[in-house]
Structure prediction request, 97 residues.
Amino acid sequence: MVSTTVETEEPESEIKFALELLGPSLEMFVNITTNYSPLETGKDSNLWITKSYDPSSHFEIASEDILNIYEQIVGEKLDLNIDPSEDEEDYWSGVFD
Prediction:
């Protein structure tokens, strides 16, 4: 997958060097979309809108956008580190022993 943010009137020429590095392909398609961003943060309207998807291949920016919206709504960062309870620790130790 090759992607970029278009900066010229010739988008295919912008990815020319990447395509040359990849060599011949079985299939190629070009899709150009407009990126949108919300006009406000959502604090005043309670309407939380994400940005458009960007050219990153693994949704890094989209994930960051969602985490930022969560922080704006809740007032703190989302902690994705979960410590298992004692019951869960006992369960998993028995599964892999």
Q: What stands out?
A: Helices lie at 11-14, 16-22, 60-74, 86-95. The chain has a mean pLDDT of 84. The longest helix spans residues 60-74.
